[in-house]
Amino acid sequence: MDVFFYIAGFVAIVSTVMAISGRNAIHSLLYLILSLLAISVVLYLLNAPFIAALEVIIYAGAIMVLFIFVTMMLNIGIERETEKKWLNPRMWIIPSILASILLVNLILALKNIKTIPGDNEVILPKQVGISLFTTYLLAVEIAAILLMAGVIGAYHLGSQKKKVKHRFLEIK
Amino acid sequence: MLTVSIETQILFAGILFFLGLIGLLVRRNMIFMLMSIEIMFNSAGLVFIIAGTHWKQPDGQVMFIFILAVTAVEVSIALALILQVYHHFKTLDADAVNKLKDHNSFNHKGTLSKTQSNTK
Amino acid sequence: MSTIIALIPAIPFLSFLILALFGHRLSRKVAGIIGAGSIGVVALFTFITAIGFFKSLPEVKSYSVTIWEWINTGNLKVDISFSLDALSLVFCFVITFVGFLIHIYSIGFMSKDEGFSRFFAYMNLFIGSMLVLVLADNILLMYLGWEGVGLCSYLLIGFWYKEPQNGYAARKAFIITRIGDTAMIIGIFILFLNFGTVNINELMQQASAKWVAGSSIAVLTAALLLGGALGKSAQLPLQTWLPDAMAGPSPVSALIHAATMVTAGVYLIARTHVLFSLAPVVQSAIAIIGALTLLIAGFSALAQHDLKRILAYSTISQIGYMFLALGVGAWSAAVFHFMIHAFFKALLFLGAGIVILVLNEEHDIFKMGGLRKKMPVVFITFLIGSASLSALPLITAGFYSKDQILWYAYSSQSGSILLWLGGFIGALLTTLYSFRMIFITFYGEAKTEPAFIPGKLMTVPLIILAVLSLVAGFVELPASIGNIHLFSNLVDNTLPVVVVKAGENQEILFQLLSAIIALAGIYIAYLIYFKKPSLSGPFSHSRINKFFEKGWGFDKLYDTMFVRPVVWLSVIDKDDFFDLWNIGISRLALMFNRLLSYTQNGKLRWYLMSFAIGIALILTYMLSK
After folding, report:
1. Cα–Cα dist C135/C126, whole Å
2. Is residue C215 a part of any domain in this protein?
């Protein structure tokens, strides 16, 4: 079982690296979907099958698709030259250094945690559902309100006012 | 069942997170920055799941569901905003939307020295 | 009795308020009546008080009345309280009586001036402040009156403010007396610090009890108070303001700069004589300063053209005599000379005022002449005044007072022949310059015609003062002539008696010398300035004459020593380089602003980078713990 974890992890990391360093937006998004699928595998291996399914359906299926649609609408895949201009290798140095510092911190921090060895049981969706609707009921309702706010906001922010100008006043 | 140590699992999530961070800092295109943020959200959720599995409770998965909801809303609104920015600035360059910069302080001689020179 | 004493300073202040608030609405007649009448009422009250005081001698030597509490904080408790004793009574009498005569004269003198009610308001304020000064029970109230008279002096010197020169003269007077005032207030602080009280009697008692004669603290305090007296009384080295103060109207010169304000220094030293007895060094300094001043001023008066400046230098010289008397311990002689000097000097100034007014503001005596026949009353009174000033023997009051001082300058415990010699030469000079003044102004041919004849309002005070200049001396006759000691008996109730070390027959010798020198001076002046004016020719164009005329170069000295460096520093500091510190702070803040605003350049990735750096730093820091 461990070997699947390592393979899926490797795939996820490689595809994430390809995603963030790509020039073409659509290609990067597709690499990102691949990474999400790999993470979904990892999630299944972590005894969370329900979440693994949700990851694929919602994250890769809805959110990423939304990304792709907007990207296609904005037509930015064509502008490769600008991407090349913006992305010179020199810019990678400092963020990499920062991220590696943080990574080192994480590793050092991880040394001090205690682990509880034990048998692994799969946590079924039923348990998750019960927990959602009893313990975390309030949070569910708030999340629903949040989603509604998101809908209204996205609709309002996405609309464009037509600027009506008299044709004599139009600036050529 | 998985016998990978928990350090390795969290390390894996951490690597994903920092990759997202690097992508956020490096890229100039706003779509890519948003994408990197998605990666970071995802890895954070992954850590929650890891913790939930470790303590054998459903709370971790519940947290992930909430993170998912939040991410969905955030992406939709962020994309709507990016659409507005694109229609206004005609570019997706993050450096182009710097209208909130501090305009007047560049090359500014002190006001006191101005009044000083008036009293000659 | 006590209420009258309290009313004496209050009435002038009341009339000042009325004239200041409503003066522009009152007619000249009413304003004059209020202004002069208030002083007349005060003179009457002083007279009544004097009678009451004489009746109660010798049991009660001083009266005290407290009106209200002024300051009461912590250790400092100061009341508005007045006390009347022989010394203050003499001063009150002179101030109110001579002041009343001068006010009446002013009604005529200022009758055509546009600032009529303002003049009387200021004069009343002055009289009120001066009365507060001499009647004050504690030294802080005296300082209040001191400052009040300084203020009124400034206001009245610069009365005709539309002329800038008058403003400069007023400022010069104020600033130079200010130097003295600062020394005085420091002296007051030291006194309060050491004794915890400001009441003058208590201070003097405690000083004589606690301080050793000759100790440095006594010398310091006495020297500081002397500094205050020097400023107000225009003695060396602060004498340069008085000649320029003649820019004010003549009644002002008569009242303030002859009779009263400039004698405030004499009052101060007499009042705090205990301190000066405790510091013999300072007291000798007073005598030396007095002698030097009277000589310097005498020589300067000899060289002046301006009528009022001669009289101004003469005032400085005569106050030098008073200081000489104070310095050798002849307290009552100094006060006596003060009284007589007030009479004849006020007379001379009022007469000079008439002359100048009648000749259309002509001040130069070489452009006057022949006024003897045109204005006989003025001539005769002026002559009497000059005779008294020159101490003409036996008939004038000035002889008795000045002679007394000369005698004590030699014969007192701390007197010496040198001091007498200085006063003696000064007497010769006095006679010379005063009769020079008379011969050039009133004799000879008229170079300017008088415009009008002065009215009774102006001449009657002259006559009264002339009579006083003759007979007022008879209250104090020396032993060889009549041996009347009314005045010194009165004053010795408050001030110590002078200690004499020489015999009486020597006194006759000195009196004879004084008489001879006075008559000789008149004869010499007659020769040089009347009979053969050509004799004075070479002298009057020489360089020494110019030196004397400029007041021995003191103005130039102060200008070089003090005024020029301050002006030079101000010019350097024109751009206010002491403000560079403040400018520097503001520039520093602005520089930081500029630096920090580079970090707020609106670029999103810049901000994200700062986030990341911050997180890295914080996590590293937390893990390192």
Report:
1. 14
2. no
Protein fold of A2-89:
Four Helix Bundle (Hemerythrin (Met), subunit A) (1.20.120)
| Residue numbers in A near C613 (CB within 8 A) | 98
Rounded CA-CA distance C155/C392 in Å is 36
Q: In terms of CA atoms, which chain B residue is nearest residue C579?
A: B116
Residue-number span of the structural domain to which C571 is assigned = 547-575
Q: Are residues C388 and C511 in the same domain?
A: yes
Could you read off the pLDDT of C490-535 as tens digits, one per residue?
A: 777 777 777 777 666 677 788 888 888 888 888 888 887 777 766 6
| Residue A18 touches chain B, beta carbons under 8 Å | no
Both tokens of residue C114?
């546009």
- Whether residue C527 sits in one domain with residue C418: yes
Q: Which chain C residue shows the shortest CA-CA distance from A110?
A: C623
| C369 lies in the same domain as C477 | yes
In this prediction the ipTM stands at 0.82
Is residue C496 a part of any domain in this protein? yes
Q: How many CA atoms lie within 13 A of C349 on its CB side?
A: 31
Phi, psi at C522, each rounded to 5°: -60, -40
- Show residues of chain A in contact with C615, CB under 8 Å: 102
C218 in a structural domain: no
CA distance B22 to chain C (A): 10
A95-98: long-range contacts (C-beta < 8 A, 24 or more apart)? Answer: A95/B21, A95/B22, A95/B25, A95/B26, A95/C609, A95/C612, A96/B22, A98/B21, A98/B25, A98/C612, A98/C613, A98/C616
CB distance A35–B77 less than 8 Å?
no
Cβ-contact C514, C390 below 8 angstroms: no
CB contact under 8 A, C602 and B98: yes
CA of A110 vs chain B CAs: smallest distance (Å): 6
pLDDT in tens, A56-77: 999 999 999 999 998 888 876 5
Total domain count, chain C:
3
Residues A106, A17: Cα–Cα separation, whole Å: 20
In chain B the domains, ranked by start, together with CATH numbers, are 6-93 (1.10.287.3510)
Shortest distance, CA C167 to any CA of chain B (angstroms): 27
Q: Does residue C140 sit within a domain?
A: no
Q: Domain check: are C377 and C498 in the same one?
A: yes
From the candidates C621, C623, C625, which should be mutated to test the interface with A, based on the most A CB atoms within 10 A?
C623
Kindly identify which residue of chain C lies nearest to residue A100, measuring between CA atoms. Answer: C616
Domain boundaries, chain A: 2-89, 123-172
Instruction: Name chain C's partners: 3 or more CB pairs within 8 A.
Output: A, B
On whether both C585 and C530 belong to a single domain, the answer is no
Say whether both C481 and C357 belong to one domain. yes
- pLDDT (tens digit, 9 = 90+) per residue, A100-116? 888 888 888 887 766 66
Set of chain B residues whose Cβ sits within 8 Å of the Cβ of C594: 105-106, 108
- The verdict on a CB contact (< 8 Å) between A76 and B21 is no
Domain match, C596 and C554 both = no
